Amino acid sequence: MASATTVRTEALVKNYGSTRALDGVDLEITAGHVLGLLGPNGAGKTTTVRILTTLLTADSGSAVVAGHDVRTEPDAVRRNIGLSGQYAAVDENLTGRENLYMVGRLYGMSRTDSTARARQLLDRFNLTDAADRTAKTYSGGMRRRLDLAGALVAAPPVVVLDEPTTGLDPRGRLDTWSVIGELVSDGTTVLLTTQYLEEADQLADTIAVIDHGRVIARGTSEELKTRVGGERLELVAEDERDLAVIARVLAEVGSGEPTVEDSLRRAQVSVDIGKKALIEALRRLDAEHVTVHDVALHRPTLDDAFLSLTGRPSAESTDEEESPA
């Protein structure tokens, strides 16, 4: 039996004056899966999140979350989602425990259940020792973890994570990945926007790449990598004077134009069959008495796919998304 679709958007459009932030966005997330939404700065990721969480109204198109229309049933949508945004939305004058207790009460949970849930989440996010300190004394990473815990208080069927690990150290990021994995194991549906492509590679069942307000590619991480082409063969010259010969040989055995970095004595090219191309390149260079200092074969990464699809390196997506809203 096919899994149900928990989140769906069709032809979402949003304009800010003469700027079209979204230009017909179609998304679909199957229940119990993670959709990674990637895109450069200003591509439309945060605008999409705001529409799905009822913080913004689309100019046209439709969006359904957990069976409820975001335009006509916003209250029902809010009852079925948890949101952790780019900035930690915590009350600095309350303790960590009080913040989570307050969220539980706002969701209609009893005092007893709110207290128990707060205790459980404080432990889950390694905040027990700081539970009774005011949030204004927390570090940025601790506030991010408290904010994420707040999104999970009511155990919603849909969780929207907008840059959830920004500001976290490597340990905090790994802990958050673990929590997201547990959520999915429990059947939670997750929409994840992230500036870390490794994060999407690790967590997302499917990925949608958005640019200029349109979804320009979708698929699994492996499917997107495959679109880039084959492997990349990289050779480093022992003598920089041989770099031109190496580049010529790579052009002969590769499937594209080699890129050359003179300062590193390095040249690389895309190849269809990596091992075969490597052996042939080394055979030809040996015949010309060229010594190679180092060789490497690289499989395409999600960064390569992102660059190929958007024409921009993923580093550009590390800035906060600009939006008039």
UniProtKB/TrEMBL annotation:
<keyword id="KW-0046">Antibiotic resistance</keyword>
<comment type="similarity">
    <text>Belongs to the ABC transporter superfamily. Drug exporter-1 (DrugE1) (TC 3.A.1.105) family.</text>
</comment>
<keyword id="KW-0472">Membrane</keyword>
<dbReference type="InterPro" id="IPR027417">
    <property type="entry name" value="P-loop_NTPase"/>
</dbReference>
<dbReference type="InterPro" id="IPR003439">
    <property type="entry name" value="ABC_transporter-like_ATP-bd"/>
</dbReference>
<keyword id="KW-0067">ATP-binding</keyword>
<dbReference type="GO" id="GO:0005524">
    <property type="term" value="F:ATP binding"/>
</dbReference>
<dbReference type="InterPro" id="IPR050763">
    <property type="entry name" value="ABC_transporter_ATP-binding"/>
</dbReference>
<dbReference type="GO" id="GO:0016887">
    <property type="term" value="F:ATP hydrolysis activity"/>
</dbReference>
<keyword id="KW-1003">Cell membrane</keyword>
<dbReference type="GO" id="GO:0046677">
    <property type="term" value="P:response to antibiotic"/>
</dbReference>
<keyword id="KW-0813">Transport</keyword>
<feature type="domain" description="ABC transporter">
    <location>
        <begin position="7"/>
        <end position="237"/>
    </location>
</feature>
<dbReference type="GO" id="GO:1900753">
    <property type="term" value="P:doxorubicin transport"/>
</dbReference>
<protein>
    <submittedName>
        <fullName>ATP-binding cassette domain-containing protein</fullName>
    </submittedName>
</protein>
<dbReference type="GO" id="GO:0005886">
    <property type="term" value="C:plasma membrane"/>
</dbReference>
<keyword id="KW-0547">Nucleotide-binding</keyword>
<dbReference type="GO" id="GO:0043215">
    <property type="term" value="P:daunorubicin transport"/>
</dbReference>
<dbReference type="Pfam" id="PF00005">
    <property type="entry name" value="ABC_tran"/>
</dbReference>
<dbReference type="InterPro" id="IPR005894">
    <property type="entry name" value="DrrA"/>
</dbReference>
<dbReference type="InterPro" id="IPR017871">
    <property type="entry name" value="ABC_transporter-like_CS"/>
</dbReference>
<keyword id="KW-1278">Translocase</keyword>
<dbReference type="InterPro" id="IPR003593">
    <property type="entry name" value="AAA+_ATPase"/>
</dbReference>
